[in-house]
Write a structure and sequence with these properties.
- It contains 4 helices and 4 strands.
- It is α+β, with helices and mostly antiparallel strands and about 90 residues long.
- A hairpin with a 2-residue loop joins strand 3 and strand 4.
Length: about 90
C-alpha cells in the first residue's frame, strides 16, 4: 500500500521489470514528455528532442505548427513541450 504521493510517482515511472527506466514529469498521463537517461542524458524530451530546444524556437517567434514541421512532431507534442517548459520556468523562479 502506497501513500497517494508515492502512488502518483510510481505511476509516472516507466518500468522495465523492477528497474525504473524513464519518468514522465507531468502529472497528466497524456503528456509525451519523458526523462530517460538513455535519451538526451535524461533531460526532458519528446521524440528525442529536448523540450528546451522547442521552447527556444517558440521564443524566437516560430509558430507551434512551424516547430512541429521542422522537427517532424505532432503539433500537440510541441504544445506539451512548451507547457512543460513554462511550468519548469515557474518552478525555477
Amino acid at each position: 500500500m502506497l501513500t497517494p504521493t508515492a502512488q502518483e510517482f510510481y505511476e509516472r515511472v516507466t518500468w522495465e521489470g523492477d528497474t525504473a527506466a524513464a519518468w514522465r514529469p507531468h502529472d497528466d498521463r497524456l503528456s509525451p514528455v519523458r526523462m530517460d537517461p538513455r535519451i538526451r542524458f535524461g533531460l526532458p524530451a519528446i521524440g528525442g528532442i529536448r523540450t528546451e530546444i522547442l521552447r527556444e524556437h517558440s521564443d524566437a517567434g516560430e509558430t507551434d505548427e512551424d516547430i512541429a514541421g521542422e522537427f517532424d512532431l505532432p503539433v500537440d507534442s510541441v504544445r506539451w513541450a512548451l507547457a512543460y517548459e513554462v511550468s519548469a520556468r515557474t518552478r525555477a523562479a
